[in-house]
Amino acid sequence: MAEAILEVGGLVKHYPLTQGILFRKQIGAIKAVDGVDFTLHRGETLGIVGESGCGKSTVAKMLVNLERPTAGSIKYKGEDLTRLTGRALKAVRRNIQMVFQDPYTSLNPRMTVGDIIGEPYDIHPEVAPKGDRRRRVRELLDVVGLNPEHINRYPHQFSGGQRQRIGIARGLALRPEVIVADEPVSALDVSVQAQVINLMDRLQNEFDLSYVFIAHDLSIVRHISDRVGVMYLGRIVEIGRDAEIYDHPTHPYTQALLSAVPVPDPAARDRRERIILTGDVPSPTNVPSGCRFRTRCWKAEDRCAQEVPVLAVPAHLGDPTGPAAHDSACHFAEAVSIRRSAPGQTVLPEPTP
Amino acid sequence: MLLEVRDLQVEFRTRDGVAKAVNGVSYGVDAGETLAVLGESGSGKSVTAQAVMGILDMPPGRITGGEILFRGRDLLKLREEERRRVRGAEMAMIFQDALSALNPVLTVGDQLGEMFVVHRGMSRKDARAKAVELMDRVRIPAARERVRQYPHQFSGGMRQRIMIAMALALEPALIIADEPTTALDVTVQAQVMDLLAELRREYRMGLILITHDLGVVADVADRIAVMYAGRIVESAPVHDLYKAPAHPYTKGLLDSIPRLDQKGQELYAIKGLPPNLMNIPRGCAFHPRCPIARDLCRTDVPPLHKVTEVTEVTEPDVADRGSACHFWRECLHG
Known about the structure:
A: seven-stranded mixed β-sheet; 27% helix; disordered C terminus; B: globular
């Protein structure tokens, strides 16, 4: 495997909940991210999936230093971002850029496209000398498939898909090595999503980029990712290569999540076995003891309330080289076989006897 | 036929010109049937539904032609008063964003009960009891206590259940659900769709499901109407459409779903962008993006051809399939 470019360890973000105006005291915390570890390798795409409120976007913000972690480390090529300040931090941040979800609100409507894409050069002038910037911006527009002649247009003159291309061009301006993309296509029309995914794929090869790709659309994540992490209530509950997660999920939450995804094949309607979870995700201010998924889990036992399951290869699963042997934070992790029906990735989990 | 929309035309007058949002849409729903209306933003799927429901903002919207027959009556000819009686009691709508569709300063009990007070003339006390009953029906736990709570005190999935409860309140014959689960997480989406399907069966309601999600459609719909630039481009029983699409746009949408066997390859992508409604391309609106477009497509608007042929993958019963493509045969077999 290629070298590690980002190493995240014990990452925590708690937002304090306070009461009182004059004497503010902390009465609790929103545990948005509560102990996340993963490694991103060079040239790889790590997909992170999870439902709203699971903390995936907070992780993204911490990776690009838009939020300071409460605890934990984010190492870029061995250097811990969370301990850096000032000039040293700025130098590292250049290498990790972000593409945002909503291309309608993440571009300043009063700036021209040229100014938006060129703005990173004002912050990091060493990357491009002043006289060279327009040329570079034109080049970037061309790279993302937009007409370089449109450099003086404003964001409202572009469609959603084109705006997302502008956002991607801005992310590329500083020649970063890592791109953190937070739901980059979920605001786009279906027919345009594929175009943007293809673009991101092509840019990855062209510029040797490593992606952290955050999304809730499981089929898109599978398409683009080499490895996938599944988050639930502030933690990664299962992580592994894409085939391991999608074809051999061992964590009950992953199994339920995969089975709940509607399959674009009406023929699968009756054959599909779905795990319908009951209830809602608990509030991150009041995380269940032990395993945080236990309140919705059909396998939960007393042990789950007492003991926090660690994210590791479950020892009891047998064959340590098999596809079910990947990190899973469940006391009762269990391999399931997935049946599939055409077209695409119909998932039909059923417990193996 | 419970509802029949015939050749509906809707336009919006804006400062920059006239946007033709709906250009001759016809579809029908029977009692107990689920019709999915699939389309991207700007395809006119929601505007059509709003016209049916009678909640279109006019102005700037204007219905310039067509009929909306509900139980045989043309809704467009009714007076506003009569229309109001139909709305809510005979047809109801579920919106995508429950938080903004519910009134934040009224308890959910008051909002549910209001239906009975206004339409059925019940006392507030009876209406409250009805509200609790409805919340039970859509499986909101502890309904008796929660009936006093405000919308913000409910989770997204629970709020959508309240919307469903409100739509069901007067046992309408038709429900229009506009992207009812788009704002929800997949595990909650599955719960809500299941609930909706179950209640629809039980009350034998017609359901129009407006969505952009090919997965959701495959799960619940009987028939599907695909919209593009304010027109229906394909209409078919759901199984047939997925097996053998008869319009290049439908085919493109199905092909652009990421598939396992294409991992590491380029995704199929429909080229170009959806058209601007102020300036819809001449001829077939899809022609600039179509892989099989010819000269005819650039000049002549294709009518909704009856798809009469059977391919080896479609069911022998191809009754009632339509495709607005000059070359639907080619698409069907290609």
